[in-house]
């Protein structure tokens, strides 16, 4: 009988150690996923991630080739924002510098902070779509009821494969406060915005 209890204790300790090891391994794997995913997206262009290096303006513009560029905007569910592009799309020539404007408005009577997450489709086009300036690079703080124009300056590289004639640039606008479980609203006026 004593041997049976001893075996159960050893078995329980062994099981507890295995479970503890699995929990630690899953925790470490969770931290490793972000850099692994970023590296995978950078290599394959998967997920529509755009470039992370500064774009260089090309000397030659290919006016013989036209690319249809479509703009799609989405507001994350329950986010208190109005978000749209000024135009539904435009025709661009590879190698030329272009600008587009998006408009966002805080629909609440509170200070809000938002972040836009971009995506480019088809995913093969993502590495050829180079943003020089974009509101998506930083978070955007809005006063109660404030509406603001948000610029994007970009170039479609002349190296874009010939079979791609349409590119979709989409943004999802998130309320950053809702993304953080422990966020506490801290209404702080922006310099020059009171």
Structure description:
With 194 residues, this protein is of the alpha+beta class. It folds into 2 domains: 1-44; 67-179, Ctag/Cox11 (Pfam 04442) (Sandwich). It is built from 2 helices and 9 strands. The protein has helices at 2-44, 176-179; strands spanning 67-75, 81-85, 89-92, 97-106, 112-121, 129-134, 140-142, 147-156, 166-175. The longest helix is centred in the N-terminal third of the chain and has 43 residues, at 2-44. The chain is elongated.
Mean pLDDT: 81
Largest sheet, in brief, is: 5 strands, mixed
Note poorly predicted spans. Answer: 181-194
Strand arrangement within the widest β-sheet reads 3-1-9-5-7
Q: How many β-strand stretches?
A: 9
- Which structural class matches the secondary elements? alpha+beta
Number of helices: 2
Secondary-structure element string? HEEEEEEEEEH
Instruction: Look at the structure and give the CATH class of the largest domain.
Output: Mainly Beta
Fraction of helical residues:
10-25%
Oligomerization:
single chain
Q: CATH topology of the largest domain, which one?
A: Ctag/Cox11 (Pfam 04442)
The CATH superfamily of the largest domain appears as Ctag/Cox11
Question: What is the rounded distance between the termini?
Answer: 78 Å
Strand content: 25-35%
